[in-house]
Amino acid sequence: MRKLLSLAAALSLFSTAVVAQNKPASPPAKAEGKIGGKNISVDYSAPSKRGRVIMGGLVPYEKVWRTGANAATTLRTDADVTIGNLAVPAGTYTLYTIPGEKEWTLIVNTQTGQWGTNYDQSKDLGRVKMSVKPVKDTVETFVVDVKPSGAKNGTLALTWENTEASVPITAR
User: What pTM was computed for the model?
Assistant: First the structure.
């Protein structure tokens, strides 16, 4: 009986260790919201801080960033929207950003399905400025949020470490 219990305990520990090893460092995540009654979603991979300097370090300032990890971050909208001052027709796009200390640029790119670092500027639908503000508490894991605020308005927000970058979205 004692051998059987020891074997069961050992198998339990081993299976827990195997499951922990298979957890991705930047798991898939999804942000969804309705703006003007229309669905908007963002599929991305959510990296974590894990003791690293993120803004200006892992995510360098003034360079194109894949806006997450792994495969390219994908925006889907089932309606025509305006992001900042950029008209975005209903469809699927890739989002990139250019982070800065005081201002970010959001890039809406028409190429989809690629790995996150395969950025082709010739496929840009357009670029818009994002507002940047500090957040009070450190955000360990990168978060994308689609926040409705009114009948046809909302915000796309990107938050990580001590920074939130956001841009308004309007349903057309």
Answer: 0.86
